[in-house]
Amino acid sequence: MTSSLTELSIAAASEALRARKFSARELTQAHVDAIAALDSQLNAFITQTPELALAGADQADAALSRGDAGKLAGIPLGIKDLFCTTGVRTTAASRILGHFVPPYESTVTANLLRDGAVFLGKTNLDEFAMGSSNESSAFGPVTNPWSPPGKALVPGGSSGGSAAAVSAGLAMGATGTDTGGSIRQPASLCGIAGMKPTYGRCSRYGVVAFASSLDHPGPFGRSVADCATLLGSMAGFDPKDSTSADRAVPDFAAACARGVKGLRIGVPREYRQDGMAQEIDALWEQGLAWLRDAGATVVDVSLPHTKYGLAAYYIVAPAEASSNLARYDGVRFGLRGQTNGDLDDLYELTRAEGFGEEVQRRILIGTYVLSAGYYDAYYTRAQKVRALILRDFTEAFGQVDALLTPTTPNAAFAQGEKVDDPVTMYLNDVFTVPADLAGIPAMSVPAGLDGAGLPLGLQVMGRPFDEETVFAVGAAIEKSAGFTARPRLRAGV
Amino acid sequence: MSLDPATVKRIAQLARIRVTDDQVAPLQSQLNGILGWIEQLQEVNVDGVAPLTGAADMALRMREDRVTDGGIAEKVLANAPDRAGEFFAVPKVVE
Questions:
Q1: Mutate which: B1, B38, B58, vs A, most A CBs within 10 A
Q2: What is the 8-class DSSP label of residue A152?
Q3: What are the chain A neighbours of B22 within 8 Å (beta carbons)?
Q4: Is residue A200 in some structural domain?
Q5: Do B19 and A365 lie within an 8 Å CB cutoff?
Q6: Smallest CA–CA separation between B79 and chain A, in Å?
Q7: How far apart are CA A371 and CA A319, in angstroms?
Q8: Contact criterion met (CB < 8 Å) for A103 and B35
Q9: Lower CB count within 10 Å: N or C terminus of chain A?
Q10: What is the DSSP pairing of strand A216-221 with strand A193-196?
């Protein structure tokens, strides 16, 4: 019984909880036990909160008995340790926030709690969400549950802990944030679904800031429908975020059953890269065939500025990060460096001691591209290229309803394989970055395995605020793919 | 555009990150690697294109200018590394 509880979908668990087939406490206990058994191998959690989770489960059981339970009552989730949670340490996987205990709750997690969700703890990530392999965490790397014996693979990043936890059955779903691919890339590498909604759909209030014009909170689930259910709870207008969209939240879960009959699906030719693994190309063709068989029309489109997305991103994101991370000064919260010197000494030592290498590198790049004499050559030019990337998408969406591409140019790679050259690591996000720059919704759906038995995802992108079509296409691919493979390291094995 | 060691030190100082002498050379090579790669943006024709400052191209909302929060000094100070009463304490700034 215990192991099957960690394999359920959110919809199935909710139905069983309402039918009182098992209690919320039993469901949460099964996940707490799974974390205790497996997390020493995966390191998916920075902070585990089993007592809080079981107390939340008891509240859910009481609400279920009363008949006033929320739509996520008793569903145990992992929360990326970038979302502030009242009274529970929130580190951003950085030494500088190693002891930070927020006195307030992020809007996204408050929405999930309002609907009765149970939080198992705070999941690991790249420091300040800067990375594609979860190796820059000050709390150690996360191991991909699909790793073969004796070889540790990365789960992707930055939301690697969330993706690994959901994949391994340590949580039924999780929150993530996607700035350059940090939901979709780890979802693809861990064989689960992950959705980055439209910019403004989920509030950024209480999410530790990386690059404010690019940061998108969103969900992970083992199915497209689970992502839709979670997003329905997380999303919504929030006056505390000035970029939050004042729009009604549609019934995303219902959209999953729409089908794709009559839809036009675009294939951007620029995503076909030299040197891309043949099996990724083949999976992409297979995905298009599935959609054709389900009644969609496939259309070739062009997104001519795709190849410049990453370079524009690596100006805009560090620039915004250098500004956002100026707040870590050792004065008001977080780590303080030890000094007998003046205030500048305090700042410099605090930041040298508190930030890891990749974060320091990005702050330095950001400081440089924003500095006098270079601002227009770098930052303004990158913002113009960003406008061209959005224009590419707008023109494509004049012809098609959604776009289908691979999520990543490769499957999960080994820990340590790409850490020596920052640019090699950045190239992992080549297919995911454009949707962040344009703010459009995009999701990764597990679609197949490569020759080594590692999962590969396909990416669906849609028009701004049309997550429903993205979910419909994602669900159609999921149905055709029939992806049932599970990782070697998982609960109950 | 390629950074020399003096520029690396100047950027670090602007960013208020202490960089030791033995860190300068590796940083210089990494930063130049990234900046060299970013140079490809120079080949894009951006004539007449307005910079996109944020995703979704939306206008910022206005709100009424009134106090909606406050009176929570203890919460604000709860994570302070050092405090003196209801103030954050820092090393001496003025002689």
A1: B38
A2: P
A3: none
A4: yes
A5: no
A6: 5
A7: 10
A8: no
A9: N
A10: antiparallel
In a domain, A152, yes or no: yes
Q: Which residues of A touch B17 (CB under 8 A)?
A: 348, 351-352, 355, 360, 363-364
Mean local confidence (pLDDT), A169-191: 98
Q: Which helix (H) or strand (E) holds A458?
A: strand A455-462
pTM of structure: 0.97
| Weakest mean pLDDT among A310-314, A364-368, A417-421 | A417-421
- Which residues in chain A are closer than 8 Å to B31, comparing Cβ atoms? 361, 364-365, 368
In chain B, what are the domains? 5-42 (1.10.20)
Q: Which two tokens stand for residue A135?
A: 């190796």
Q: Which stretch of DSSP H or E encloses residue A447?
A: strand A442-449
Number of folded domains in chain A? 1
Note whether B71 contacts A: Cβ–Cβ < 8 A: no
Q: Which residues of A touch B52 (CB under 8 A)?
A: 383-384, 386-387, 390
ipTM: 0.95
Containing H/E element for A354? Answer: helix A343-354
Q: What is the DSSP string of A359-386?
A: HHHHHHHHHHHHSTTTHIIIIIHHHHHH
Residue scoring higher pLDDT (B1 or A166): A166
Residue type, A8: L
**Angle, in degrees to the nearest 10, between helices A467-481 and A278-293:** 100
The whole-angstrom separation of Cα A370 and Cα A391 is 25
* Domain ranges, residue A248: 2-258+470-481
Task: Give φ, ψ of A469 to 5 degrees.
Answer: -65, -40
Give A419-427 contacts, CB < 8 A, sequence gap 24+: A419/A133, A419/A135, A421/B33, A422/A358, A422/A361, A422/B30, A422/B33, A422/B34, A423/B33, A423/B34, A423/B37, A425/A131, A425/A132, A425/A133, A426/A132, A426/A310, A426/A314, A427/A310
From the CA of B64, how many Å to the nearest CA of chain A? 12
pLDDT tens sequence across A68-82: 999 999 999 999 999
* Tokens representing residue A189 in the block: 């590498």
